[in-house]
């Protein structure tokens, strides 16, 4: 192949007669070879693919870092555990920090599988006695439907049945701060309790024998100067029955009672009859109560 054929094979015009055919047009030949072999196109495709891979890797790394930081600050916020104590039974729970909780009958507690910078649990229904492991770096808060009870390490009970017109916080040991959202309600010490009225929004502080209020852990129900609806609910939850009565008639009634959940339902209803002057009839899991009430 002579020099003219070489030029023609690359799509170039051969040198004119006045030009030196033995001095090939180097830049033109190189450009033609690049074009013939699609070198520039392949190189651009390579770099585009490389940039895409690099961008994807960067996104994955940054996303993983963000998730790690979020989880570090919000440890356990998505992983919630729900424990229920059915009617007729109580439950003992050990929380992730080693704190102990006893749930009374017909109660529901929700809490994270692990605690982060704070320790927050939710008493969604019922009554719980909390023995909180002390940790000054991580406050412990019980959220009920109307109140927030905050401690560093102490023992107390929260009673927050939705059927009742009030919520109660009672301190067995240590100190407890009770608030309603951002509004402080009470700072309680041992043998003090606060009763929050859901209807009026008012609270009342009292001195009590706190250990008696949580003796249901041992199967003993001790109620002092409580509303009739409170007494009836305690019987319902202990014996898995529904008790029907005229709430308006008995609205102003207050009673005190002490009974063991090992007693029969009939014996406990006899006690209620003695202290409140009611009449009752048991039909399986239904109990009908009648009487004059406290109008």
Automatic annotation (TrEMBL):
Domain FecR protein, residue spans: 82-176
Domain Protein FecR C-terminal: 222-288
Molecular functions per Gene Ontology: sigma factor antagonist activity
Membrane-spanning intervals of the chain: 50-70
Keywords linked to the UniProt accession: Membrane, Transmembrane, Transmembrane helix
Record carries keyword Transmembrane helix: yes
A Pfam family reported for this protein in Swiss-Prot or TrEMBL: FecR_C
Record flagged with keyword Transmembrane helix: yes
Domain of life of the source: Bacteria
Family matches, as Gene3D superfamilies: 2.60.120.1440, 3.55.50.30
Name assigned to this protein: FecR family protein
Source organism: Dyadobacter psychrophilus
Lineage: Bacteria, Pseudomonadati, Bacteroidota, Cytophagia, Cytophagales
């Amino acid at each position: 192949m002579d020099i003219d054929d070489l030029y023609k094979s690359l799509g170039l015009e051969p040198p004119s007669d006045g030009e030196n055919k033995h001095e090939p047009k180097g830049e033109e030949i190189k450009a033609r070879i690049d074009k013939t072999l699609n070198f520039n196109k392949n190189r651009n495709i390579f770099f585009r693919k490389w940039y895409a891979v690099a961008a994807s890797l960067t996104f994955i790394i940054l996303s993983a870092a963000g998730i790690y930081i979020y989880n570090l600050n919000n440890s356990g916020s998505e992983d919630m555990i729900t424990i229920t104590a059915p009617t007729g039974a109580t439950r003992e729970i050990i929380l992730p920090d080693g704190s102990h909780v006893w749930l009374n009958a017909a109660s529901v507690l929700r809490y994270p599988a692990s605690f982060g910078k704070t320790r927050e649990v939710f008493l969604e229904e019922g009554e719980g006695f909390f023995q909180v492991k002390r940790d000054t770096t991580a406050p412990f808060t019980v959220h009920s439907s109307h109140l927030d009870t905050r401690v560093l390490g102490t023992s107390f009970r929260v009673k927050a049945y939705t059927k009742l017109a009030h919520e109660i916080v009672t301190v067995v040991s240590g100190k407890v701060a009770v608030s309603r959202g951002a509004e402080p309600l009470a700072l309680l010490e041992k043998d003090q309790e606060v009763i929050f009225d859901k209807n009026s929004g008012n609270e009342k502080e009292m001195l009590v024998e706190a250990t008696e209020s949580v003796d249901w852990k041992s199967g003993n129900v001790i109620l002092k100067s409580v509303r009739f609806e409170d007494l009836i609910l305690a019987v319902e939850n202990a014996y898995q029955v529904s008790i029907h009565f005229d709430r308006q008639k008995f609205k102003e009634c207050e009673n005190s009672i002490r009974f063991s959940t090992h007693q029969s339902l009939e014996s406990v209803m006899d006690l209620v009859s003695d202290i409140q002057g009611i009449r009752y009839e048991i039909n399986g899991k239904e109990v009908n109560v009648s009487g004059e009430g406290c109008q």
